[in-house]
């Protein structure tokens, strides 16, 4: 007891000197991940400008249509390899080191892209970027959730959507104003700054506690959350619960461990939900639109608006909506925001498709040929408001701490597979059935995913991890409500933040 008191008093002397608020320290910890995700948005959107420049007769690298589709879609295949190793890295190396290491292949990919002289080098560079993105796709929501206090968690998780939108806008602006090699250098710089900021942040307290590194856990927790009475109680509950867990957990084989995990409803139910969430994320055109914005908008506008102007219109709407989403996600229920985005997206996609068909059959006068642009921009608004941020917010909340790494990896696999399938098939879809037909397919697919999620997805806003876990376990008291003790509430707030 004396040793424990001694360490506490020493730490107290250190942290009472800190004048930076806990919120700002959490913001610093999250900002490195946010910059990485800006780079991810740039990765996704960069083909939209790269391919346009390489189609010029005097381009340094000449591509076939097959090369183009692979350059846009190979990120999805590379994501799989990154997601496979992510759970191991998160469990064994920790959140901080995993985030640091994920920046290295991304930096190497952009460096190789800057120096690329043939299609093979371009594909290799995109593969390296995708590998880093795969690791970060699993690490980002986990890290942000564990760095954040519960009251800031929703807004911080919504910054993932903001980061994607910012990266897409930045990549298209750089690609419009700069030569593609210079644009690649500018986009890659986000990862360098991200690595610096991640290195300035501590490891997350929950991870340190699970590894029995309690002195480091105490320092990290206080650095992030301050040192008021409630925070001290939460800290002690966190460390004591992990000590108790270590003493009570019997040693069993890995096969028995994992076979026991996958049949637990608190694991497989969130995993199934996240599979549907990430399928929805991709089938909504989330990665197709940034990769093929110029040809897509060329058909939608029918030449009434210059291609790059229409591309930047899409980017500005996406960016402004992502800023709004950071506020909305923290204020409204998760289900409300998600289904609002689904309703707007489905209606806008089907209306755009109808208008394009009517225009092709001559039912829309020439002076109104631009009208499909309006529902298209509403589609961008809807999917950015709800379909872009909510899957990432839910991913940081829905898994219990013990299964968070594994669950994120498995559900992330669906994200990467659907990324590849949707982006790889997009050029063929645009050629065979046009933008109007593709939008119709996307609208119907979003509606189908939305129906499943309507019945599967619980509301998670304002609930502790224990309450969410109890919901999936089906544990309820006599009144039909989840029974939660005060100690469990404190413990789960610590695990969240």
From TrEMBL:
Location(s) in or outside the cell: Cell membrane
Main location: membrane
Domain Major facilitator superfamily (MFS) profile per the UniProt entry, residue ranges: 27-461
Domain of life: Eukaryota
Classification via InterPro entries: MFS_dom, MFS_sugar_transport-like, MFS_trans_sf, MFS_Trehalose_Transporter, Sugar/inositol_transpt
One Pfam family linked to the record: Sugar_tr
Protein name, as recorded: Facilitated trehalose transporter Tret1-like
């Amino acid at each position: 007891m004396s040793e424990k008191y001694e360490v506490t008093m020493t730490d107290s002397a250190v942290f009472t000197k800190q004048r930076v608020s806990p919120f700002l320290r959490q913001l610093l910890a999250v900002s490195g991940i946010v910059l990485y995700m800006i780079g991810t948005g740039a990765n996704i959107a960069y083909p939209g400008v790269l391919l346009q420049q390489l189609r010029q007769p005097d381009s340094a690298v000449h591509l076939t249509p097959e090369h183009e589709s692979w350059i846009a879609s190979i990120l999805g295949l590379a994501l799989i390899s990154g997601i496979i190793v992510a759970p191991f890295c998160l469990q064994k190396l920790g959140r901080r080191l995993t985030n640091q290491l994920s920046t290295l292949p991304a930096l190497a990919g952009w460096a190789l892209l800057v120096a690329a002289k043939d299609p093979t080098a371009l594909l290799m560079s995109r593969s390296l970027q995708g590998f880093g993105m795969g690791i970060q796709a699993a690490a980002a929501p986990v890290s942000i959730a564990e760095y954040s206090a519960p009251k800031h968690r929703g807004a911080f998780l919504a910054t993932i959507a903001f980061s994607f939108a910012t990266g897409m806008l930045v990549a298209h602006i750089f690609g419009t104003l700069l030569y593609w090699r210079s644009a690649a250098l500018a986009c890659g710089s986000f990862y360098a700054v991200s690595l610096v900021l991640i290195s300035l942040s501590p490891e997350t307290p929950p991870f340190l506690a699970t590894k029995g590194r309690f002195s480091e856990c105490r320092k990290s927790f206080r650095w992030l959350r301050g040192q008021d009475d409630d925070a001290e109680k939460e800290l002690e509950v966190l460390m004591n619960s992990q000590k108790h867990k270590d003493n009570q957990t019997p040693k069993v084989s890995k096969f028995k461990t994992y076979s026991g995990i996958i049949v637990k409803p608190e694991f497989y139910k969130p995993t199934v939900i996240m599979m549907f969430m990430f399928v929805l994320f991709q089938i909504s055109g989330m990665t197709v639109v940034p990769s093929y914005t110029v040809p897509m908008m060329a058909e939608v506008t029918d030449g009434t608006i210059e291609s790059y102007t229409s591309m930047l219109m899409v980017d500005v709407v996406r960016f402004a909506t992502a800023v709004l989403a950071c506020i909305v996600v923290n204020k409204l229920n998760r289900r409300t925001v998600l289904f609002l985005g689904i309703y707007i997206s489905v209606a806008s996609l089907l209306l755009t498709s109808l208008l394009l068909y009517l225009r092709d059959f001559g039912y829309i006068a020439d002076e109104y040929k631009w009208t499909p642009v309006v529902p298209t921009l509403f589609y961008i608004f809807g999917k950015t408001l709800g379909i872009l941020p909510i899957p990432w917010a839910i991913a940081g909340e829905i898994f219990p701490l013990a299964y968070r790494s594994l669950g994120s990896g498995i559900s992330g696999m669906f994200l990467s597979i659907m990324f590849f399938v949707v982006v790889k098939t997009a050029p063929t879809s645009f050629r065979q059935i046009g933008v109007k037909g593709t939008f119709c397919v996307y609208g119907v697919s979003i509606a189908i995913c939305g129906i499943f999620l309507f019945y599967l997805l619980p509301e998670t806003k304002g609930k502790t991890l224990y309450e969410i876990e109890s919901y999936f376990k089906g544990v309820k008291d006599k009144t039909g409500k989840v029974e939660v003790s005060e100690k469990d509430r404190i413990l789960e707030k610590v695990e969240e933040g």
